[in-house]
Amino acid sequence: MIEVLTGFGVVVVVIAVGYVLGRTDALGPGARRALANMVYLVATPALLFDILLDTDPREIFSANFLVIALSALVAGFLGFLLLRLRGSNSPDSLIGMLASSYANAGNLGVPLAVYILDDAAAVIPVILFQVAFYAPVTLTTLDMLHASKQSNLLRNVLLAFRNPMLLAAIAGLLIGFLRVPVPVFVGQPVALLAGASVPLALMVFGMSLVGSTVSLTGDVALVVLLKNVVHPIIAGLLAFHVFGLSGHALFTLVVLGALPTAQNVLTYALRFRTNERLARDTGVVSTLVSFPVLVAVTVLLGPG
């Protein structure tokens, strides 16, 4: 328990460093975007690839994957239904559905998995499900609701496969499954780049907090409650009662369920010009709320 809580302290300190850098503009204009692109395009894909080289693919596609997928779909459906009942239209409610269940598994999930779960590979099923299935299907539905002439599931799937994290995960899974030896001149540079992922991601998040303003509307409060509280509860209930998981496996799935809303949701909202404020505000609020929730989860379910 002390080790895990110490890990939280490490995370907070690195985030604080990023906040100070952003507040003082020490790295100059455009630094946040440049570092965020470094994390998204290079460092985190390298980390996922590096992890998967030593991971059995069967560990990825296990009961954990089913719990992750089902809990996200249930939480998302609740978000969609409740927002519709509150008077939102279908496109707005779909963005709310994603905000209720689409986790920040890459930029924040990886570093938190390292320090809370001691297993960065735990987030890979989340990334695979969200990027390869959840996002393409939802975006296609939004296309159809907007009567887009280019509405096409295949187009959205192909768009998802441009995500460098997904490509790195698939490449790592294939190499791990086929037992292909990785040359030193490939493996070692990847490992070096992977080492930059966690600290850079946390500092970028700290920088993103500078000047953040939110409006805590009823819809935002509802979606944050679903993402930070209801989603992990659903994951825990499915893991324990349906799949018979307990101990560290149960703890891992509840932690993954409690991760905050991903910034991808805002990207999708901006793309369709739909419920942008909800997506932006939920991303900020759910991230701040996730820390005390994760501490509570760790106290209740974490290693003793």
Automatic annotation (TrEMBL):
Topology versus the membrane: Multi-pass membrane protein
Top-rank taxon, per record: Bacteria
UniProt-annotated location(s): Membrane
Statement: the UniProt record of this protein carries the keyword Transport: yes
Main localization (coarse): membrane
GO cellular component: membrane
Lipid biosynthesis recorded as keyword: no
Keyword annotations from UniProtKB, A to Z: Cell membrane, Membrane, Transmembrane, Transmembrane helix, Transport
GO terms for biological process, alphabetical: transmembrane transport
Coiled coil: none
Full protein name: Transporter YfdV
Lineage of producing organism: Bacteria, Bacillati, Actinomycetota, Actinomycetes, Mycobacteriales
